[in-house]
Structures are given as C-alpha cells and as structure tokens.
Design a protein that fits this description.
Blueprint (H helix, E strand, L loop, with lengths): L11 E5 L5 E5 L28 H8 L9 H10 L12
Antiparallel strand pairs: 1-2
Length: 93
Amino acid sequence: MSPNSTIAIPNLHRLVLDNGITLIIVENQAADIISGRFFLKEAGTIAEKPEQAGLAHLVSAVITKGTAKLSALKIAEKIESIGAGLGADASID
C-alpha cells in the first residue's frame, strides 16, 4: 500500500472545528463505551530542537502528576469516578 492510499472505514466521520481542530470519529455501536484520544500535530519529540531534547517526554511524564490545586490522586479519583482513564505519551510520530 502506498503512503497516499486511503482505507475505507465504515462509520468514519471527519469534522474540522472553527478553531482548526480536526475530529475523527469512528462509530462502533456494538460497544457501549466511548473512547477518545487526542493527537497533536507538529508537537512532541519530532518538533524538538536539539537543545530541547527530552522536553516532550518530560512533559508527558509529569502532566498527570498533579497541579497546585489538585494532587495526582485527586485527578485520578475524578477521572476514575466517571469510568475513564488518563495517560500521556510523547513519540516521534
């Protein structure tokens, strides 16, 4: 398959919001859950300058560790109380 090939995915919807954010939604009505992922283009390790090497990985490692107002435990409790999970990762992709 060439890099420019497209694959038909049933129930796929693409929406570009007014602020430029692109949403890609794939419906699976056989599953009674909602799953979401956020990907940032032109961000992460691919966008780091040599003097910033490791910064994206550091941010992804500490982003769920708490804030001045909410501890990591409180964040985890709030997320888990709605049956959700939270994680972060930085990669060259």
